[in-house]
């Protein structure tokens, strides 16, 4: 909500710096995004009058203009705007001026013609394109007739105003209006606020019944629904004061009818909608829910298929607007409009919220209907809008208001006591002080013994219980004025749980292996949620009823999809060598269950080069053994008691069938590691990519060995090499396991240093060479001890793997 200081000054007098006001709002109500003056940083930008222009001799789109900028002589400016014309008053940046983004304008030449400055569009002096009137979006802005050449443009365009951008929270929807902000500042500074109310003059020759007949069979759809009619209008551009009010509030001016509805939206916080009466096709207006498959083309020219939960405004038959969200194109206001049907309502907020989410329309109107409307000003804002439309459009207001329903504004009464307020806040305020603070807020207080009965006006619909009153007193009194006290009681040191310690240890291990942490969305698409699942039982996706977007419809069932999105994002930005990990929860739902269970997982993804080439070594691309080594390092350092095994697997649809292994802890599947299937990688626009995902909860629950530290042996080690030829099907992990089991108590390391397959050895066979290291911590080993253990390994290899010792 962008708040204009000049606009505020119409309601209350605050001779206070805008930044101080913003600080006050931030301390007492809601956050402030920014405080700025649009003209700040700009200089030497003045009104110019285009006296004459001729086409540029060397260009088919440039014009050479002679411009009056209030000096003795005209200056020459070359301009390329398509809408430049003689007789216009325009925005001129003089030589050495500063425009938006601190750009400096200098004298120069454009294709041989001197140019003494620049004729500017609104965007070039800092206006957002979203607020520039459509007729000036593609060209320069034409100033009003009363603009005087040579004078600064800032006052003419409202750029010397101070704009406070307020970040309104859902519980303070009353501040989504200028009047609501004025009420808030009136309470903050104890300054009275004065508001103008409409003085509507109606015609006496016609009545509203001659134009409109409203029907609302289900009043829960719209507790309040009313209409007025304004006739004999001329639709044209709004006066400058209104355009300035709107663009400083972040709204694009359109015409005098639509602008008034937007003006009342910002002033009262009440959404209004104007229909071209002659396009309705009927005097019967019916408010109902949409029929299945019913369609409407909205003001953004998009055809939308409606749902039966959408509220629609109809001409008795056909939908002409989506209630509380967006109007229909068929009845929009145009320059040919002469009669307007003006709508003011309170729609069912939950249904509007559903419609806004399902249709992807998040308008200023829907935001206010979702959060709540001040029912006390629904009729007043309708009357004020009708009065102003008639005034600006030279029209007249038809007598009366058509109403299908009307919700009466009622105050809320809440009881509290001085003792309770002081006990909660830790203050010693008197009843008189508390009553005064309530009066600053515009609340009426009646005393019954020790009880304060507080009457809260309808404009503060967020207050309903005693705790709300405590908060109101605390913030107006000032949080800084509330005494600070230290907590009492026995202090206990905080500490991590066992699970938290292990999760942090797992993160540290992966980071030490060279992976960087990534954090992905917990919501994804249903397709991505169903990929890379390794659960041994059937699981089902969990979809959101009202997702924020089509990309966030389903809670995730794996971490890899999110990591692949992160890799794809980085690769698209020329970052090719990436190693990410993520630790987080996935959500599995079994058949028949309403809610999913949350399980801790940890996953990694790597692509490109793990190590770049340098003068000492070659580059090292990521491969299966690289990422398997990361997993092995993680599981080893977690000190698991049970054995970890890797079993080749072809059961993962999105993984490479020849480069994927399931990871087992004893007999329990805890995850998988391998290469993403090339087809799946292509979907994410990735090259060769390797991933792993583990059930971290199972690792937390698994038995662990206690980490014991031993001194390094001072006695020398003995090594023995063995080369053996075995069948290709024999796995290195199985061979190492056998060597470890048969190697004796002095065997401390097994190292595979050679693998050979090819010519010179029998087909279907491979040659493996190992170094076995023996050491004793208490003595020097003798030849006989090592030979005995080594020979036992040799015999076991021959027997188990039919190995040919070379």
Automatic annotation (TrEMBL):
Domain of life the protein comes from: Bacteria
Protein location: Cytoplasm
UniProt-listed InterPro entries: aa-tRNA-synth_II/BPL/LPL, B3/B4_tRNA-bd, DNA-bd_dom_put_sf, Fdx_antiC-bd, Fdx_antiC-bd_sf, NA-bd_OB-fold, Phe-tRNA-ligase_IIc_bsu, Phe-tRNA-ligase_IIc_bsu_bact
Enzyme Commission (EC) number: 6.1.1.20
BP-aspect Gene Ontology terms: phenylalanyl-tRNA aminoacylation
Molecular functions per Gene Ontology: ATP binding; catalytic activity, acting on a protein; magnesium ion binding; phenylalanine-tRNA ligase activity; transferase activity; tRNA binding
Cofactor binding mode and count: Binds 2 magnesium ions per tetramer.
CDD domains, per the entry: PheRS_beta_core (cd00769), tRNA_bind_bactPheRS (cd02796)
Location of the TRNA-binding domain: 39-154
Binding site for Mg(2+): 462, 468, 471-472
Domain B5, first and last residues per copy: 409-484
SMART domains: B3_4, B5, FDX-ACB
Presence of keyword Ligase: yes
UniProt similarity note: Belongs to the phenylalanyl-tRNA synthetase beta subunit family. Type 1 subfamily.
Matches recorded under PANTHER family: PHENYLALANINE--TRNA LIGASE BETA SUBUNIT, PHENYLALANYL-TRNA SYNTHETASE BETA CHAIN AND LEUCINE-RICH REPEAT-CONTAINING PROTEIN 47
Identification of the protein by name: Phenylalanine--tRNA ligase beta subunit
């Amino acid at each position: 909500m962008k708040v204009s200081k000049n606009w505020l000054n119409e309601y209350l007098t605050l001779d206070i710096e805008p930044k101080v006001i913003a600080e006050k709002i931030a301390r007492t109500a809601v956050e402030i995004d920014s405080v700025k003056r649009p003209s700040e940083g700009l200089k030497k930008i003045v009104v110019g009058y285009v006296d004459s222009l001729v086409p540029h001799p060397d260009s088919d789109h440039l014009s050479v203009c002679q411009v009056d900028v209030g000096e003795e002589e005209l200056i020459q400016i070359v301009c390329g705007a398509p809408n430049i014309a003689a007789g216009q008053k325009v925005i001129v940046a003089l030589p050495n001026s500063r425009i938006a983004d601190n750009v400096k304008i200098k004298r120069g030449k454009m294709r041989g013609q001197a140019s003494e400055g620049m004729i500017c569009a609104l965007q070039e002096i800092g206006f957002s394109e979203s607020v520039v009137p459509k007729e000036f979006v593609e060209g320069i802005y034409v100033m009003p007739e009363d603009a005087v050449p040579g004078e600064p443009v800032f006052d003419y365009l409202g750029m010397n105003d101070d704009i406070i951008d307020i970040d309104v929270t859902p519980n303070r929807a009353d501040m989504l209006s200028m009047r609501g902000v004025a009420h808030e500042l009136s309470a903050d500074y104890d300054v009275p606020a004065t508001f103008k109310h409409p003085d509507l003059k109606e015609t006496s020759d016609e009545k509203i019944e001659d134009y409109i007949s409203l029907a609302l069979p289900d009043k829960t759809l719209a507790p309040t629904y009313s209409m007025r009619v304004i006739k004999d209008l001329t639709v044209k551009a709004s006066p400058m004061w209104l355009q300035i009010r709107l663009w400083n509030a972040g709204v694009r001016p359109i015409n005098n009818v639509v602008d008034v509805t937007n003006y009342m939206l910002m002033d009262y916080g009440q959404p209004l909608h104007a229909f071209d009466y002659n396009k309705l096709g009927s005097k019967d207006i019916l408010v109902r829910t949409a029929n299945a498959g019913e369609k409407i083309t909205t003001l953004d020219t998009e055809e939308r298929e409606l749902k039966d939960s959408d509220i629609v405004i109809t001409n008795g038959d056909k939908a002409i607007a989506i209630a509380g969200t967006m109007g229909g194109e068929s009845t929009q206001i145009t320059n040919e409009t002469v009669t307007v049907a003006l709508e003011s309502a309170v729609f069912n907020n939950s249904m509007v919220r559903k419609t806004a989410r399902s249709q992807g329309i998040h308008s200023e109107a829907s935001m206010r209907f979702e959060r709540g409307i001040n029912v006390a000003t629904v009729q007043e804002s309708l009357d004020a809008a009708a009065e102003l439309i008639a005034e600006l459009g030279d029209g007249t207001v038809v007598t009366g208001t058509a109403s299908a329903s009307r919700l009466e504004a009622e105050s809320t009464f809440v009881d509290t006591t001085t003792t309770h307020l002081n006990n909660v806040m830790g203050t010693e305020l008197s009843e008189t002080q508390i009553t005064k603070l309530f009066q600053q807020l515009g609340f009426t207080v009646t005393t019954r013994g020790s009880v304060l009965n507080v009457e809260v006006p309808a404009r503060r619909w967020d207050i309903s219980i005693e705790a709300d009153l405590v908060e109101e007193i605390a913030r107006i009194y000032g949080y800084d004025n509330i005494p600070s006290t230290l907590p009492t009681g026995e202090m206990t040191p905080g500490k991590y749980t066992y699970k938290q310690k292990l999760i942090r240890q797992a993160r540290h291990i992966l980071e030490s292996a060279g992976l960087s942490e990534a954090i992905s969305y917990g919501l994804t698409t249903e397709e991505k949620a169903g990929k890379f699942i390794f659960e041994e039982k059937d699981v089902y996706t969990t979809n959101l009823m009202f997702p924020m977007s089509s990309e966030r419809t389903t809670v995730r069932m794996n971490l890899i999809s999110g990591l692949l999105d992160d890799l794809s994002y980085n690769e698209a930005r020329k970052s090719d060598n990436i190693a990410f990990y993520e630790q987080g929860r996935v959500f599995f739902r079994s058949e028949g269950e309403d809610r999913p269970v949350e399980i801790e997982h940890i996953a990694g993804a790597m692509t490109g080069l793990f190590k770049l080439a340098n003068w000492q070594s070659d580059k090292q691309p990521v491969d299966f053994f690289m990422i398997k080594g990361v997993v092995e390092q993680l599981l080893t350092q977690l000190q698991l008691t049970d054995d970890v095994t890797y079993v080749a697997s072809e059961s993962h649809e999105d993984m490479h069938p020849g480069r994927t292994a399931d990871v087992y802890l004893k007999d329990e599947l805890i995850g998988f590691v391998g290469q993403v299937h090339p087809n799946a990688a292509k979907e994410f626009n990735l090259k060769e990519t390797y991933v792993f995902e583990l059930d971290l909860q199972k690792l937390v629950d698994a038995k662990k060995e206690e980490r014991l530290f031993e001194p390094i042996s001072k006695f020398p080690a003995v090594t023995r090499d063995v080369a053996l030829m075995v069948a290709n099907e024999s796995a290195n992990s199985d061979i190492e396991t056998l060597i470890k089991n048969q190697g004796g108590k002095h065997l401390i390391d097994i190292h595979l240093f050679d693998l050979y397959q090819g010519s010179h050895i029998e087909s279907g066979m491979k040659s493996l060479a190992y170094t076995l290291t023996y050491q004793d911590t208490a003595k020097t080993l003798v030849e006989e001890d090592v030979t005995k253990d080594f020979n036992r390994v040799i015999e076991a290899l021959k027997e188990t793997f039919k190995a040919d010792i070379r």
